[in-house]
Write a structure and sequence with these properties.
The protein is an alpha+beta fold. Helices cover 20% and strands 26% of the residues.
């Protein structure tokens, strides 16, 4: 299953939630755009997933987590232009709805909880 680049709307009752998908598809969805979104949404959340959606790999992070934002550790292109995509939103609930839509009906994330979710910035 491929991710559609750009903003995605998830309907939840009468409230529409918005997620932004960065998959390296074009310059509006590459590492530079992704890191810009992260800078503009410091309290937001990120699901790190494969470039081709894989419900077995959807790991939740905070926007300030070094595992998914450290510019010193990774060369440009490493976040969205190779094997990974980032799905970003301002709340965990928005991302839970997104993972439900893309293969995890219970709305859970995969893997061990990242250390960034156990501490404050």
């Amino acid at each position: 299953m491929n991710i559609s680049p750009g903003a995605s709307r998830v309907e939840k009752g009468t409230h529409t939630m918005s997620v932004e998908i960065f998959d390296g598809h074009d310059s509006a969805h590459n590492d530079e755009a992704y890191l810009g979104w992260v800078a503009d949404h410091p309290e937001g959340y990120i699901v790190n997933t494969n470039a081709t959606i894989n419900p077995a790999y959807m790991v939740l992070h905070r926007c300030w987590c070094e595992d998914v934002t450290d510019k010193q550790r990774y060369e440009i292109g490493a976040y969205t232009q190779r094997h990974y995509a980032k799905v970003c939103a301002e709340s965990q609930e928005e991302l839970r709805e997104w993972v439900k839509k893309y293969g995890r009906p219970d709305g859970s994330f995969t893997g061990r909880e990242c250390r960034c979710l156990r501490r404050t910035q």
